[in-house]
Amino acid sequence: MRLEYFQLIDRIVTLDLDARTLKAHAQVPQTSTIFEGHFPGRPLMPGVLLIESMAQASGWLIIGLTKFERMPFLAAVRDAKLRTFVLPGQALTLTASLIHEGSGFAITKAAIEADGKTVADSEITFRMMAFPDPEFRASMEQVATAIDFPLAAHG
Amino acid sequence: MSSTFDTVANIIAETCDIPRDTIKPESHAINDLGIDSLDFLDIAFAIDKAFGIKLPLEQWTQEVNDGKATTEQYFVLDNLCARIDGLVAAKGA
After folding, report:
1. Fewest C-beta in 10 Å: which of A26, A107, B31, B46?
2. ipTM for the complex?
3. What is the pLDDT of residues A113-143, one digit of tens each?
4. Which CATH number applies to B4-92: 1.10.760.10, 1.10.1040.10, 1.10.238.10, 1.10.1200.10?
5. CB-based contacts of A12: which residues, under 8 Å, 6+ apart?
6. Which residue does chain A place closest to B45, by CA atoms?
7. Cβ of A105 and B59 within 8 Å?
8. Cα B83 from chain centre
């Protein structure tokens, strides 16, 4: 994870288009300027970033399912639960599953596990739109390559 | 078995916290009930699930934006329910 750059997914482990699920890995850094303020002397992974990381895992799932033709934008977060503290250095497993693909929107369930326990989960709604321009899509493809997005799903 | 309108009105009432008795067949979801596009996604999700269909929201929005249709054609509840019935019938055909 590079928290300051909002790069919250390190590696996509599996993308199952039939089951419409994705699993990803993320390593919370030991140090970050964010931890200097959250909180001084007691660093904790901010809950909003855990929610964002679930959104990013879900987003990559949607990009995979739509073959890089649609860009998901976060629209709603429902029943977000932050079940325990996440600390610097922890290894996280993120999962996302599609529960509904509507016309122009999609809804996922996402969760984060650490040490085999669920630390956060939520239901997330996205608006799906065409990429606004080719450069945007190209930049997302670059990120996809960096996080081992499966090329077979790339389309 | 409840009518399409009753199902849709109940979904709207529950999703948007709108008193059920204010939701009429002639109500315009946007202009009369004040439902915004994000809330309508929740409604569409519930309608899709309840009827086993996929409301073509993108197509409708495009038609309205292109001036080929009015919002009344899709978002007055009577008309919306007729569209839902049509989609359900097409699915079963």
Report:
1. B31
2. 0.90
3. 999 999 999 999 999 999 999 999 999 999 9
4. 1.10.1200.10
5. A22, A23, A24, A60, A147, A148, A149, A150
6. A102
7. no
8. 8
